Amino acid sequence: MPDPQQYLVARIGKPHSLRGEVTVQVHTDDPQARFVPGATFITEAAPGSGVPRELTLHSARLHNGTWLLAFEGIPDRTGAEGLRGTRLLVDAEVVEDEDDEEGWYEDELVGLRAVDPDGAELGTVSGLEVGPAQDLLVLTLPGGGTAYVPFVEEIVPEVDVEGGRVVLTPPPGLLELNLEQNPDENADQDPDRNSEQGGE
């Protein structure tokens, strides 16, 4: 787990090319500001993996909705393969020095209460899904379901990390609509079982 004074930025996935590029799972809603050549990240990797304590970003590009990163000292696919699963972190002090009031890290958001402007409970933030066009807040609803809320100012006008809450103003039916469209929920259904039930 990251140190309390550090924020998770991304997790490295598989190599992408022969030039040492890797795919990453993004954990910040402002990757353009984080993935700047020359930026240095603290690494968290398996013991004995040989991954350096810090990695310096050489290049970053968005390809078909996926961020591809290359690091100094990692020139080829073999080196990139050794980074798989590594977590990239930044110190909280770096974030504070940048005075980045518009960007949020998933670690900051998870666990916040989601309420409407009147204070009524809507759920709890359980994740952040970063997309090329729009980010989504993942909410665990009071009834146990999961909903996906566009992370835009019109729908999420207030993020109060110190107060432990986010204020939502979702259009009528948004939470129910996104709950119904949860792909994981649909994937868990057994089509054969549904067919058998329909025939009874």
Automatic annotation (TrEMBL):
A GO BP entry: rRNA processing
Keyword Ribonucleoprotein set for record: no
Molecular function (Gene Ontology), one example: ribosome binding
Primary site of residence: cytoplasm
Domain Ribosome maturation factor RimM PRC barrel: 107-174
Basic and acidic residues: bias regions: 190-200
Annotated Gene3D superfamilies: PRC-barrel domain, RimM
Cellular compartment(s): Cytoplasm
Entry keywords, A to Z: Chaperone, Cytoplasm, Ribosome biogenesis, rRNA processing
Protein's UniProt keywords contain rRNA processing: yes
Sequence ranges assigned to domain RimM N-terminal in this UniProt record: 9-93
UniProt region (Disordered), positions on chain: 172-200
Superkingdom of the organism of origin: Bacteria
GO cellular component: cytoplasm; ribosome
Quaternary data: Binds ribosomal protein uS19.
Similarity field: Belongs to the RimM family.
Domain remarks: The PRC barrel domain binds ribosomal protein uS19.
Function recorded in the entry: An accessory protein needed during the final step in the assembly of 30S ribosomal subunit, possibly for assembly of the head region. Essential for efficient processing of 16S rRNA. May be needed both before and after RbfA during the maturation of 16S rRNA. It has affinity for free ribosomal 30S subunits but not for 70S ribosomes.
Identification of the protein by name: Ribosome maturation factor RimM
Native species: Pedococcus cremeus
